[in-house]
Design a protein that fits this description.
Layout lengths: L1 H32 L10 H17 L1 H20 L6 H25 L10
Keywords: ATP synthesis, CF(0), Hydrogen ion transport, Ion transport, Membrane, Mitochondrion, Transport
GO biological process, one term: ATP biosynthetic process
InterPro entries: ATP_synth_F0_gsu_mt (IPR006808)
């Protein structure tokens, strides 16, 4: 166990050294490639403005997403009424919709536990 800890420490030290040596060049390259996304001037106030714009834009999109959700639910209701005409494609769509609902439920549970999988919070 002690030898594995020493190996891990050595790998961490190597990674830190590599980051210290090449980190500045990587940062400059990354910023150069993505300069079209940088707002001028890059200040705290500008970041706060962008954060507020993102929040309220997402809030404004809720009615449209809600409407799309209810259209999908209505479509599924129609499929259920006409289930004798159900084909493989429509069954697959219904299964994917159910899987998506389950995935959102699981994501909500993880978020509710503070982004932990097991519920153990450090």
């Amino acid at each position: 166990m002690a030898s594995k800890l020493l190996q891990l420490q050595k790998k961490a030290a190597d990674a830190t050294g590599y980051a210290a040596k090449h980190g500045n060049a990587y940062y400059k390259q990354l910023m150069e490639q993505n300069k079209q996304y940088v707002q001028e001037p890059p200040t705290v106030e500008k970041c706060q403005l962008l954060s507020n714009q993102l929040l309220y834009t997402r809030l404004a999109s809720i009615p449209g997403r809600r409407e799309a959700f209810w259209k999908e639910v209505d479509y599924l209701k129609q499929l259920w009424k006409n289930k004798e005409e159900l084909n493989i494609e429509n069954a697959g769509i219904a299964a994917l919709f159910g899987l998506e609902c389950f995935a959102w439920f699981c994501a909500g549970e993880i978020i509710g536990r503070g982004f932990t999988i097991t519920g153990y919070h450090v």
